[in-house]
Every structure is written in C-alpha cells, then in structure tokens.
Amino acid sequence: MGKITFLNPEFFWLFLLIPLAIAWLIYTRKEQTATLKISSIQGFKANDTFWVKLRPYLSVFRLLALSSMIVALARPRTVDVSNKTKTTKGIDIVMAIDVSGSMLAKDLKPNRMEALKRVAADFVGERPNDRIGLVVYASEAYTKTPVTSDKAVVLEAIKSIKYDNVLQDGTGIGMGLATAVNRLKDSKAKSKIIILLTDGVNNAGFIEPETAADIARQYGIKVYTIGIGTNGMAEFPYAIAPNGQFLFQRMKVEIDERLMKSIAKKTDGKYFRATSNSKLAEIYGEINKLETTEIEELKFYDYDEKFRPFVLLAGLLLLIEIGLRNTVYRSFI
Which range, of 14-18, 49-53, 60-64, 96-100, averages the lowest pLDDT? Predict the structure, then answer.
C-alpha cells in the first residue's frame, strides 16, 4: 500500500468550524426539543430508556458526519510510484587491457593486473546503462567479451583475466587498439570509447599504434590511454622457478608516454599515468565523469482514491440522525 496523500488539503481548514458548531449546539440545545411546564413531576416515574440516553448523541452524529465530509473533500488517496529508466543516448565502451608478463610487476598491490581488475570491475558497476566490451592483448590480441549490456558477463570476464601464456608475451599496443576499434566501428551509439591500458612500449604485432589510432579517428572513436606503473624501479618477473612460482628482480619501468599521448590527442581523448592503486582508481573515476550517459526517467503514478468510505459514513450518520428525529424523537408539541 502506498503512502496516503491529500489532493485538496486546504479543505482541512473547515475543521475550524467544528468548535463553532459545538458552541451553537450547546447554545440552542433547549430549543431543539419541545418543553412542557408543569408544577411538579413528583407523580411521574423516572425511566431512562435506551432511546432517552441516545437522544443527546444525535448532535454527535451530525458533527461526525460533518467531519467525514471534510475529510472526503480533502480527497485522501494512496499513490504507488514506479520508475522506468531509458537510455536516450548510450555509450559503447571497450576496455583494451595489456596482459603481458610485465603486468605482474609489484609496484601496484598486489600487482598491476590484480589492481587493474578491481578498478575495472568498479568502473563497470558504475556504468549500468552503457554497453561494455573487453579486449586483452600481449603480442597479439583477441576479444574476450564483445560489446554487451550484460554486466555480469563483463564482470566475470574481468575476473578471469590472468597471465597464462595463451598469448605470446610482448606488448602489441597497435594490435590491442585495432582489435578494440574493430569491435566499435559498426556501433550506432552516441559515443564510442576505448580505454587503452599498457605498462610498456610497443614491441610486438604487425599493426602500428599510430595506424590504429588513425582508424579509430576515422570511425569517431575516442581513445583514453593509461600508462600503468610507478616512476623508477619496480619488481618484474623474469623467470619461473621449478616450483612454478615467478622469480622477481628490480628493473626500470619503461612506458612509451609519447606514443600514448599521441594516440589520445589524435582521437580527442586524454592520457593518464597510474603510478599507484589510488591513482589508478582516480583515473577510472575521472573517465567515468568525462563520459556521461543521458538517461530519461519515466515515472508512473497509480492513484487509489480513498474518499468514498468517508462520504458513505457521512451519509449513513446523517440518515440515522434524520431518521431518528423524524420517527422515535418526533414531537407534536
């Protein structure tokens, strides 16, 4: 049941008439019935029947009827509101994520890949009305999830990202970007976005990053580029021990920022540098604010009028009062 509201609450001011009506009834109560003056009532036997006791309450019936009419005039009703949102101008987004071995570096905690997965999942959760796809790349690239509105599928795909040697190690930025462009080139969305993340320099693949950026620009696709990695030295995996564990050593962090800035500028995007977990989260938060989706919210109101019971109660009380006054309490004097 919805909340009770009143369409015409101004009628409640009429309750100020109730005290006046009570005062008038008290003032004129002696004139309401016929009187007979006799010298003594000593010979009459007192017999207060039910009807005698009921007579003073006839005026109460009238006051209650008046009160019910006032409430009915105020139009009490319940309203149930249901909302329906409709995306009027949606955004298609593809996240192109570097999954090369260097993404296991520990300058972000617990490592770059795990830090990215957490932030990317949060980003997806904050885009309920957009379609999102996922591309992963190392020396080659493939589509892990096509552009879809099913966020559960995207989140599961992000959760399953790991370094597993399915792709030959290396960093093919051009391959990752070109694959992401291919997922968006036929999109009819108002805005088409690629979030391209890497932690190194382009050293693999047969498509040049600049060429892929030119293609993205031709299709009206905006590319936000992110370089992930601290400034200076970081612990990188360099070999696998006999027990299957990675061995780490400190190495210099190298990110081709010039290339990433060029790709972003060419496609009217923006370049970011994520040097820590918090900075990475801030970057995705800023992208989330830069790319907003226009939402149309439709509200449906279901009104259930509640004034009828008060009208019926007022009519019943008046009917009882008038009926009693003209039958049981009718006087011929």
Answer: 49-53
Separate counts of helices (H) and strands (E) for the chain: 10, 11
Q: How confident is the model at residue 211 (pLDDT cuts 50, 70, 90)?
A: very high
Apex 93 CA angle, 87 and 97, nearest 5: 155
Q: Would the pLDDT of 85 be above 70?
A: no
Q: Are 291 and 89 in contact (CB under 8 A)?
A: no
Is residue 235 a contact partner of residue 101, using CB atoms and an 8 Å limit?
no
Q: Which of 259, 248, 207, 252 minimizes the C-alpha distance to 233?
A: 252
- The whole-angstrom separation of Cα 134 and Cα 143 is 6
Give yes or no for residue 256 having a pLDDT over 70.
yes
Residues linked to residue 252 through DSSP beta bridges, in sequence order: 233
Whose tokens are 């992963």? That residue is 136
SS3 category, 185: coil
> In which order are the strands placed within the sheet that holds 91-98?
141-148, 131-137, 91-98, 191-198, 221-228, 271-274
Residue pair 77/307 in contact by the 8 Å Cβ criterion = yes
Cβ-contact 183, 144 below 8 angstroms: no
For tokens 């017999």, name the residue. Answer: 47
pTM for this prediction: 0.64
Residue 91 has pLDDT above 80, yes or no: yes
DSSP state of 128: T
- 126: exposed, middle or buried (Cβ count in 10 Å: 0-12, 13-18, 19+): exposed
Q: Amino acid identity of 137?
A: Y
pLDDT tens digits, 303-333: 888 888 888 988 898 888 888 877 877 764 4
Phi (first) and psi of residue 245, to 5 degrees: -85, 150
Determine the average pLDDT of the residues in 176-184: 97
> Could you give the CA distance from residue 259 to residue 283 in angstroms, rounded to a whole number?
18
Rounded Cα distance between 45 and 280, Å, is: 99
Relative to beta strand 76-89, strand 3-6 is antiparallel
